[in-house]
Design a protein that fits this description.
- The structure is a single chain.
- The protein has nine domains: 1-418 and 436-468, Peptidase S8/S53 domain (Rossmann fold, 3-Layer(aba) Sandwich); 419-435 and 469-584, Jelly Rolls (Sandwich); 594-737, Coagulation Factor XIII, Chain A, domain 1; 743-852, Immunoglobulin-like (Sandwich); 862-917, no CATH class; 920-986 and 993-1090, Jelly Rolls (Sandwich); 1107-1186, Immunoglobulin-like, CATH 2.60.40.10; 1193-1252, no CATH class; and more.
- With 1349 residues, the protein is mainly beta.
- The longest helix has 31 residues, at 31-61.
- It has eight helices and 97 strands.
- 46% of the residues are buried.
- One of its GO terms (molecular function) is serine-type endopeptidase activity.
């Protein structure tokens, strides 16, 4: 059940200012720097506000959406317009603990290999990790509770939250589900949606160290499942720029420039961004197929554009100079052993940037990542995409800042240092050494990066430096042999100049720094790539493009001094450039001198060891430095050494010694470093011996190896250092590589904990072995010794692993005979041992695990009942386990299965024999030869459907494997709820020399015998299920699709009632889901048995007679209750020996098993009663729940009325009015009026508020100065005011509503002795209004109330 997600961002941006927060420990920015950041934010805000306004206008004009959540889970949102005026859209790209292991992040955790305890919980990094994504993070998820601060009003719709919640959990998930534990599982996360990302990032940058951005700009071909009709592909290019390629891929535009500006203004802040999922266009529409030209008025085109199967698919801000752009790799099932173990995800976008810079920078694990889902607070989902790889990196590298702060008094690394450190220590990936445009600098290796910070072996250098105009830094280092000498410089480069030209190769590098290493003779330049030939391997040369340069000395010599030179070209922007310098493989010491004082007589004429076959000098010499000559060695290896002596003069006695600086401390004086000592030899003889390489050496070490031949009769006088008389000293190098032959036991796969010891059948004992060596191994002997709690050996099983490839694993299944009984409730020890005869490392050959058998099954309580005149016999088990019903005490027929079942009539024996959990069988075809053929693939989608009437366990199946990898099978309900799961490391059973394919699938191998794999998939209750499959590591599996028929495949009782059925496979094509019955998927010879441990003893059950029960419900009062009260429902039943189960809305109420139910919640309640006869359910009783009803408040002029019936109290401005407790109240002053009271007997509530304003005292009815008529009015009102001496001009006229709001104004005109006007009130609603006539000069106001009908 895997989806692929990533955020690609079209162009739609609404800028929202983020709030400023207080953080536990501030990042060291000066007031001036913070002011500059604030000014940059304002500039960006202004620019992007204008940009978005333009985009909004264009989108509306073209009737394009501003935001959409597509059916495939991708969130698409308008971001703005690009530099060419085209709309651009952001879009998202569609188990964490394994991810942490693959990138060695777990090495930094408590219990990890480095002895650290990092989780992101330190005060130094709290709240300094950010996320921008397509919606809100589900902050209430169990993995995230209390650790998310959402800084904007992001969408909290479930669909909007899925992607950000998955990403956030990969970053910081707590590990409630161990598989979902995030990289920095103790960190807190600052969250925003990406609507206004650039402005928000600028504002937040002084307070963040790392942020994650799993989204990008939509470019090239994009699939849009929401489009109706047959055309569902879109192309986001611009044919006026190029007819074939989308110019946005690799482009350095103004948006990209903004990201680099942010990085420069906040030099401790590193943005981590997904590279995108556009490689291969996820299938693209196909040649000649229609698609929509998004930037050309959405016209339809069939012209074939670039299918994005080559290079250059990272759009715009994904190629910013100062960020980490992250590609996605598959999870390496067996860890990282060699570059080929890192397999790029087929969707991960390739670089380069248009100017040739190396993008992506690095890869993380982004395929089949298990993390949180937003559907519920405890939901999880498997997703794939660079969106998943990016948080693997961002969450991890926060721990590097945490570690650095711990060691450096709370200080932080600059972002350029952190970025350089990550790229400096990445695991090599790809077919050739050095960087490339697929993997960047390789796979994240957190352990190696942390070792550089810790520098416990003193072989690393991490230095933050500044290069001023014209300056040249020179640093001398001595190689240590702890790996090759590697140096890296990295800097935050000033923002470049945007371009809108297709594939503009003009470098965007502003300050061009240079790194060189000189060994006294040769100068080595950094790695470079050729963007015009992107497939070419990296070479060495002058890097004029990247703001990171890395130099590797392939044959660095321990003890030798090298000179690093850092300089720059041209004029530095700002007259200086901060940079980070990282060096590994340094910190060595010069080795002592060893030579004779005379070159007469004895010499070493030839040395043979490993691949070294070195002739000595033609004449005699004192010292021969053959440090450029080396051989590989392996831990535990036995290595023959032959030293042939010679002479330039007289024959002399000689003693030869061999030395190796195993601990690389610059001397040969430590224990075990004198490898061999000859007897006293003539200087024409040969010294032959076998060296034993210590098991303590590690892969990658470069060991100084010294031979000293001294003319002497006393071996004790021969030393590794110093001067001596005659003889010769020679130095060589030994390169430690992975062992050739090393197979070890790793785990007991089955039985699992709490297994059934007494099954009366052979028991499968499965063990896993791992090949740690570089050679494939065959016929590896394995033994499993089983001992009891008293260490008494019960048995030892033996077998042979037929084949296990280098760095791979294999599972061997042995059979424990049924006669070897393992007692219930006892603990047993399983000791697994590999016995490879050529094994070089015995320390990993054995592993010991304990298992405790399950307790003995509980007894059953069986009944068989004939109810009334019905011939049907009802069979019940009210005890433990699952009952199976037979017609004989031994053998016989299985009549029925289950704890509540029936048979149509009595068996001939007139009684039944019941047993517990004894069911087992094989369902489906025995092998693939049952059908006519099939193929192997790593992406079959259909899910086998299995139904069962009793709890079962799927024990094992025969699988036919095409390619090695991992397969995960999960039993799920139809709503996708996971029930149980197993992940298998599978190895090919198919002949690997057969490479023919059909439709991209490997053709059938008719000789493939398959292999039986333990599944142990538990189905704890009867029901209908699907078995889903997920692939990783390149695994492929066989399914039959020729001549398949016979569905459903079933295990039945003797009466034909199905117990277990397989009816086909669930197949989804587009929006259609169906059951596929023309193919058989995955599982052959599928073995199932009862879930719990068996109790094979059969119990005789003699039928009895009874009558079926009845039930009705009697409430003890009204079924309409108030909140907080309750009602008792009483059962009225007939029948004996009844059990009770209450239901609410057809769902059983847990614990409600008595004859009375106290109800406090609304719902439809029913009672089911049962005895040995079939259960009966009563008619339902509906209970309604009433809350305190809000009183109504109706204003009729100044008279207020309420519908409350008791506890009435009128309030003015929230204060109770004394004595105002009736259903009506007359208003005498302006204010806010409410009423509280009890309407329905369920408590007091308060009404909505009414505001009444008394503008002036109304005249008496006899006052005829102001006349308003007609009153009531329907259409027009005439207003007439008598002229008086005080009125020198017409007063103002207005009409107000009951709340004092003016709804109309008018002009009074002098008409003889009166001022008059006519107001049109026809459009006003019915109610009370006031005619107000006011004279500003005299400050007099006259008011008349009218009623509008």
């Amino acid at each position: 059940m895997s989806q692929r997600l990533w955020f690609s961002r079209g162009w739609l941006i609404v800028l929202v200012f983020a709030s400023t927060r207080l953080f536990a420990q501030s990042i060291p920015y000066s007031a001036t720097q913070r002011q500059q950041i604030n000014q940059l934010q304002k500039t960006i805000q202004k620019t992007f506000d204008a940009n978005y306004s333009r985009a909004l206008s264009l989108a509306k004009k073209s009737n394009l959406p501003l935001r959409a959540i597509r059916q495939n889970g991708r969130i698409v949102e308008l971001a703005g317009v690009d530099d060419r005026g085209n709309l651009v859209y952001y879009g998202t790209t569609v188990g964490n603990s394994q991810v942490a292991t693959a990138t060695h992040t777990s090495s930094l955790y408590s219990g990890g290999s480095l002895g650290l305890n990092l989780s992101g919980s330190s005060a130094s990094v709290q709240n300094k990790l950010g996320i921008w994504d397509g919606g809100a993070v589900r902050a209430t998820h169990v993995e995230l509770t209390g650790r998310i601060t959402q800084n904007d009003k992001a969408s909290t719709a479930v669909a909007d939250e899925e992607h950000p919640s998955h990403v956030a959990t990969t970053m910081i998930g707590a590990g409630v589900n161990a598989l979902a534990r995030g990289m920095a599982f103790g960190a807190k996360l600052q969250a925003w949606d990406y609507t206004s990302d650039v402005s928000e990032m600028t504002t937040a940058s002084p307070n963040l160290l790392v942020s994650n951005h799993s989204y990008g700009i939509l470019a090239g071909y994009q699939y849009n499942p929401d489009l109706t009709g047959s055309t569902q592909w879109e192309w986001y290019g611009d044919t006026t720029v190029n007819q074939t390629y989308d110019y946005k891929f690799g482009q350095y535009d103004s948006r990209t420039q903004s990201w680099d500006q942010i990085a420069n203004s906040a030099p401790y802040y590193l943005m981590v961004k997904s590279a995108g999922n556009d490689h291969g266009a996820d299938g693209f529409p196909g040649a000649g197929q229609p698609y929509i030209l998004v930037n050309h008025n959405r016209k339809i085109s069939t012209v074939l554009r670039d299918t994005q199967n080559g290079y250059d698919q990272i759009s715009t801000n994904g190629v910013a100079k100062n960020i980490l752009s992250v590609g996605a790799a598959n999870y390496p099932l067996y860890g990282y052993n060699q570059p080929s173990d890192v397999v790029i995800a087929d969707f991960s976008s390739w670089g380069p940037a248009d100017d040739g810079r190396i993008k992506p920078d690095i890869v993380g694990i982004g395929v089949n990542v298990f993390s949180a889902n937003s559907s519920t607070d405890s939901a999880y989902v498997i997703l794939s995409g660079t969106s998943m790889a990016s948080p693997n990196v961002s969450g991890s590298i926060l721990l590097l800042q945490e570690y650095y702060a711990q060691l450096n008094s709370g200080k932080y690394m600059r972002s350029s240092t952190l970025r350089g450190l990550v790229l400096h220590t990445a695991d090599e990936a790809g077919p050739t050494p050095g960087p490339d445009y697929k993997f960047g600098w390789g796979l994240l290796n957190m352990e190696r990066a942390a070792k550089v910070i810790g520098n416990t072996d003193q072989s690393n250098l991490l230095s933050e430096r500044t290069l001023t105009q014209g300056q040249r830094d020179t640093i001398r280092v001595t190689a240590s042999g702890r790996g090759q000498l590697v140096a890296t410089i990295c800097w935050t480069d000033p923002a470049g100049t945007p371009t809108s030209v297709l594939n503009d190769r003009t470098p965007k590098l502003v300050n061009d720094l240079d790194l060189r290493i000189n060994d006294g003779t040769t100068t080595t330049q950094p790695w470079i790539l050729d963007p015009n030939n992107p497939v070419n391997a990296a070479t060495h040369g002058d890097n004029i493009r990247d703001n990171i340069e890395k130099v590797v000395i392939d044959n660095s010599i321990p003890g030798k001094t090298y000179t690093l030179v850092i300089a720059h070209k041209g004029t530095l922007n700002g007259s200086k450039q901060d940079y980070a310098l990282l060096v590994s493989g340094a910190g060595g010491k010069a080795y002592c001198e060893s030579r004779p004082t005379s070159t007469a007589d004895t010499k070493i004429s030839r040395v043979q060891i490993g691949t070294i076959d070195q002739a000595g000098a033609s004449g005699c010499t004192s010292y021969s430095d053959f440090s450029q000559v080396s051989t590989t060695i392996q831990a535990g290896q036995q290595l023959p050494l032959t030293v042939s002596l010679g002479t330039c003069g007289a024959t002399k006695n000689v003693v030869v010694k061999a030395f190796a600086d195993w601990n690389q401390n610059g001397s040969f004086d430590d224990a075990g470093e004198t490898l061999a000592t000859s007897s006293v030899l003539a200087n024409s003889a040969q010294f032959t011996t076998t060296l034993t390489i210590p098991t303590s050496v590690t892969n990658g070490q470069i060991i100084k190896f010294r031979l000293v031949a001294t003319e002497t009769d006393n071996a004790a006088s021969v030393a590794a250092c110093g001067l001596y008389g005659n003889g010769e000293t020679q130095d060589y190098l030994l390169n430690v590589v992975q062992t050739l032959n090393d197979v070890g036991a790793t785990a007991l796969v089955s039985p699992e904990a709490n297994f059934c010891g007494q099954t009366n059948t052979d028991m499968a004992i499965s063990v896993r072995v791992h090949n740690y060596g570089t050679a494939d191994q065959t016929n590896v002997p394995v033994s499993v010794k089983i001992t009891d709690a008293n260490n008494v050996e019960l048995t030892t099983l033996s077998g042979v692993v037929p084949t296990v490839a280098a760095f791979r694993e294999s599972v061997l299944t042995l059979q424990l005979p049924a006669a070897s009984t393992l007692v219930a409730g006892q603990t047993y020890t399983f000791t697994i041992t590999t016995n490879l005869s050529t094994d070089q490392n015995a320390t990993n050959n054995s592993v010991t695990e304990t298992r405790t058998t399950a307790p003995a099954p509980a007894s059953g309580l069986f009944t068989a009942t004939q109810c009334g005149t019905d011939t049907t016999i009802f069979l019940r088990n009210t005890g433990g386990g699952t009952a199976f019903w037979y017609d004989a005490s031994a053998g016989g027929n299985l009549l029925a299965a289950g704890n509540q079942t029936s048979v149509p009539k009595l068996p001939t024996s007139r009684q039944f024999y019941a047993t517990l959990n004894t069911f087992s069988g094989t369902v489906g075809p025995v092998d693939k030869n049952a059908f006519g053929g099939g193929t192997y693939s790593g992406n079959f989608g259909p899910y086998p459907l299995i139904s069962t009437t009793v709890p079962v366990i799927i024990e094992s199946a025969r699988l036919y494997i095409g390619n090695a990898g991992q397969l995960t099978f999960t039993v799920r309900k139809y709503d996708n709820t996971a029930i149980s799961s197993v992940t298998l490391d599978v190895n090919p059973t198919r002949n690997q020399s057969l490479t023919a394919t059909t439709s991209g699938q490997l053709v059938d191998d008719p000789n493939d015998q398959g292999a039986v794999y333990p599944l142990n998939l538990r189905i704890p209750e009867a029901g209908d299920y699907q078995i889903t499959i997920d692939y990783s590591g390149g695994a492929s599996i066989f399914r039959s699709n020729v001549g398949v028929n016979g569905f459903p495949y079933q295990l039945k009782t003797s009466t034909g009632t199905p117990i277990v059925s397989i009816k086909g496979s669930l197949y989804t094509s587009g929006s259609t889901t169906d059951t596929l019955k023309t193919a058989w998927y995955y599982f052959y010879n599928l073995k199932v048995r009862s879930l719990d441990c068996p109790n094979p003893q059969r119990t005789a059950v003699i039928p009895t007679t009874s009558t079926s029960p009845t039930a009705t419900i009697t409430p003890n009062g009204s079924v309409s209750i108030c909140q907080g009260s309750s009602i008792a429902l009483q059962a009225v039943t007939t029948g004996a020996g009844l059990t009770y189960q209450w239901y609410k809305s057809n769902a059983a109420i847990s614990g409600a098993t008595s004859s009375t139910l106290q109800v406090t919640a609304a719902g439809s309640y029913a009672l089911q009663v049962a005895n040995s006869c079939p259960s009966t359910r009563s008619s339902a009783v509906a209970v309604s729940l009433n809350t305190a009803q809000t009183p109504t408040l109706v204003a009729n002029g100044f008279v207020l009325t309420t519908n409350a019936i008791s506890n009435i109290q009128w309030l003015l401005n929230g204060v109770a009015i004394a004595g105002a407790t009736g259903t009506t109240f007359t208003v005498v002053q302006s204010g806010r009026y409410t009423v509280q009271g009890n309407v329905n007997g369920c408590g007091v509530a308060i009404s909505n508020e009414v505001v009444l304003t008394i503008l002036a005292t109304e005249p008496l009815l006899s006052d005829d100065e102001l006349a308003v008529y007609p009153n009531p009015a329907t259409k027009q009102v005439t207003v007439s005011l008598a002229v008086s001496a005080s009125l020198s001009k017409a007063p103002a006229l207005r009409l107000t509503d009951i709340q004092g709001r003016t709804v109309q104004t008018g002009a009074l005109q002098l008409d003889g002795k009166n001022y008059s006007a006519i107001l049109d009130v026809s459009s006003l609603p019915g109610g009370t209004f006031f005619v107000v006539v006011g004279d500003d000069r005299t400050q007099s106001v006259r008011v008349k109330r009218i009623q509008k009908q």
